[in-house]
Structure to design on (121 residues):
């Protein structure tokens, strides 16, 4: 009887698993660069906080060009949300002129253990 209950539960779980669920679990990676007033305004700190809130891994850093660049990895939906945040929100004192994204691709595993702030280039 217990075996039947376990088998029924497992079968029901698989039946409820859909392609939509699989799609949201797919991992995505993208490189980014944000232009505008993004240095000296805690942009990297807020980027790290937002990435961690969304469960993303990767890094960000200031560049000698006055931009912030980095890489994001995580579930596709969360990467999309972070890309929107980088385009439109940023830190409270920042002024984003534009955000560029490149090398967007599906990945099977993470390259990073967490989201970090790297030393300036």
């Amino acid at each position: 009887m217990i075996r039947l209950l376990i088998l029924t539960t497992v079968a029901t779980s698989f039946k409820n698993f859909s392609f939509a669920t699989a799609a949201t679990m797919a991992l995505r990676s993208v490189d980014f660069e944000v232009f505008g007033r993004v240095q000296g305004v805690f942009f990297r700190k807020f980027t790290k906080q937002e990435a961690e809130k969304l469960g993303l891994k990767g890094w960000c850093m200031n560049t000698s060009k006055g931009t912030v660049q980095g890489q994001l990895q995580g579930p596709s939906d969360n990467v999309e949300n972070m890309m929107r945040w980088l385009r439109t929100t940023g830190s409270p004192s920042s002024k984003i002129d534009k955000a560029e994204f490149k090398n967007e691709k599906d990945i099977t595993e993470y390259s990073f253990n967490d989201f970090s702030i790297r030393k300036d280039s």
Helices lie at 2-16, 19-25, 43-53, 76-88. The CA atoms of residues 9 and 15 lie 10 Å apart. The first strand starts at residue 27 and ends at 37. The first helix runs from residue 2 to 16.
